[in-house]
Amino acid sequence: MNLQISSFDDYESAYNHSVSDPESFWAEIAQNFQWRKPWKKTLEWDFTAGTTKWFAGGKMNITENALDRHLATRGDQPAIIWESNDPQEESITLTYKMLHQRVCQFANVLKKHGAKKGDRICIYMPMIPELAIAVLACARIGAIHSVVFGGFSAQSIADRINDAQCNIVITSDGSFRGNKEIGLKSTVDDALIQCPSVQKVIVSTRTRTPVSMLKGRDVWWENEVKTVSSDCPAEEMDAEDMLFILYTSGSTGKPKGVVHTCGGYMVYTTYTFANVFQYQPGQVHFCTADIGWITGHSYIVYGPLCYGATSLMFEGVPTYPDAGRFWDVIDKHKVDILYTAPTAIRSLMGFGLDYVNGKDLSSLKVLGSVGEPINEEAWHWYNDNIGKGNSPIVDTWWQTETGGIMISPIAGITKTKPSYATLPLPGIQPILVDEKGEEIVGNDVSGNLCIKFPWPGIIRTTYGDHERCIQTYFSTYKNLYFTGDGCLRDEDGYYRITGRVDDVINVSGHRIGTAEVENAINMHLGVVESAVVGYPHDIKGQGIYAYVICEKVPDQDEDLTRRDILATVTRVIGPIAKPDKIQFVSGLPKTRSGKIMRRILRKVAEGETSNLGDTSTLLDPSVVDEIREGAL
Ligand code: WTA
Q: I need a surface site. Which of 82, 136, 208, 298 has the fewest CB within 10 A?
């Protein structure tokens, strides 16, 4: 495949081509893939209607691109290297041949249990090779996968299954994370009480904890694969058929199912993988994300495999058995590219250099950062101590909705600047707008980040509710895709993402909607109302701060009540949504029309208690004093 940019001049000419003639630019790139039938129209789009189609009419299957076409040239090369949570457990290498064989075999298991093209299949699994196999097996037969991150609660799983009407769930008995063992099947069982659409549950074994297995519904992965052949021709898909749904939080209500389709997503993730990381044949790419998030979908599974790369998949956490684990993994597998989140870097920084010194990191060539803004201190620590000053850092800005990386340096080619995502990749046309939607031109300016032209990885719809897709992304500003992020463009035209401008908070690189957390808190016995905001947190980037009104203000039992509320939030959403701080209040600052003035709550949560701005429009300004005095 020839789609790599190799110099800054090359970047500039690719960029110019992509803007002056986007269709011919992407059509040329798409030629590098395997199509069963050529597409009829490169691009059709209408941002007012929130619709985009790339390569429509083109017939393909993403697994033929990720697996089959590599068999002749690199069948014996590792496709996936798996590293266990437990450093004593042997790692597993799946060559392209082996992965192909196992994907086909499991695809036949899915078919045996009635799965067919267009069905939705929920996957709730630990970071084991079977997870990647399950994802690819769905794609092989044209079933739409909906992966739910292993940290979500039964209720969250049920909501996602019901929203997409999944008929099959693929899970495991349990998962290992650090020194913890977490039940997964039992959580799925709790979820399924509310999910009449689910006919079959396929369970792989990992922890071999006792699990309930219902006759007629539940089957073991290991038994099933013995009953089928490993010959499974790929289903023919249209480029615009759905590939997957991935739920993500927004500023209102329940998480929405972001939909990506087969062709454009394949082209975009592969192109960005090859270019941003400047992947060279034989290199080992280590993305530390979980496949339950978009980063894992795009840069552990699809991007690397479609490019014929070796992708390292790690089951554990950065601090187990100690804070040197990432460095041990890099040393052991001679990792070339490390792609991780600022929150992990900040947390490891806190443990000091003793865990880094003495580890051989000389194989590293490129470092990546994703998920949240990287502060300068973390950037320098990463650069100096991990990259030893000679591995470029790519600070990659993108979103679940964008499918792949949007604004980022190209490793070794774009001059980097700490905390800047730098320049848009070819095909990406960012613009900054003010509150009214007027474009802010020139440099050394800031505004809301929008994109004015479609790229192949753009969100196609929100599952089952296209109106919501239009409302969320295409109606704030006319004819623009609105990202929800604030951004500045400096004097060199470099972009720096400053954080969300909506009610989404980014906790350890995970998106959480304040409304979602409030709904969960409000379900707790005795809670009258709550308001949730983000606040700066040294390690997590942002922490969750909740103001809670209870029927009876708890006195000596305050702490117990806090813990009870945390238990409810864990039950409703999952541990990742637990507030870091809960302040009990008797009222919330509301305007006369009943709107909560979050600006004030954010300021108090940030520790700013003097300069709260204009409070004259408040219904009862005295609540502000109480909130200020009780600040945690
Ligand atoms: C934030 C993760 C600053 C941003 C791939 C975005 C970032 C949200 C960066 C999407 C970055 C992601 N610098 N902020 N390099 N990357 N973000 O959907 O606020 O989980 O809107 O996708 O993370 O989070 P999501």
A: 208
Q: How far apart are CA 479 and CA 624, in angstroms?
A: 40
Q: What is the pLDDT of residues 156-194, one digit of tens each?
A: 999 999 999 999 999 999 999 999 999 999 999 999 999
Tell me yes or no: is domain 8-487 CATH 3.50.50.60.
no
The set of residues, in sequence order, having a beta carbon less than 8 Å from that of 362 and lying 6+ positions away, is none
Given a cut of 70, whether residue 553 has pLDDT beyond it is: no
With the most atoms of ligand 1 within 8 angstroms of its CB, the residue from 291, 374, 397, 459 to mutate is 397
27-31, 129-133, 509-513, range with the lowest pLDDT? 509-513
- Pocket of ligand 1 contains residue 372 by CB under 6 Å: yes
At 552 the pLDDT is: 83
Residue 249 DSSP label: -
- Of 99-113, 246-260, 387-401, 470-484, least confident by mean pLDDT is 246-260
Distance from Cα 209 to the centre of ligand 1, integer Å:
36
Determine the residue type at 334.
K
With a 6 A CB cut-off, is 398 part of the ligand 1 pocket? yes
Q: Does residue 500 have its Cβ closer than 6 Å to ligand 1?
A: yes
Residue 401, token pair as written in the block:
């909705």
User: 593-616: per-residue pLDDT in tens?
Assistant: 888 999 999 999 999 888 888 888
Distance CA 595, CA 613 (A): 16
CA dihedral 514, 516, 518, 519 (to 10 degrees): 160
Apex 379 CA angle, 378 and 380, nearest 5? 90
Closest CA to 117 of 142, 146, 138: 142
Q: Which helix (H) or strand (E) holds 41?
A: strand 41-46
Residues 6+ apart with CB under 8 A from 557: none
For every residue of 498-537, DSSP letters joined together read EEESSSEEEETTEEEEHHHHHHHHHTSTTEEEEEEEEEEE
Q: Give pLDDT, residue 554.
A: 65
Q: Which CATH number fits domain 508-630: 3.30.300.30, 1.10.540.10, 3.65.10.10, 3.40.50.720?
A: 3.30.300.30
Q: Is the dihedral of CA 545, 551, 557, 561 positive or negative?
A: negative
CA dist 588 and 597 (Å) reads: 8
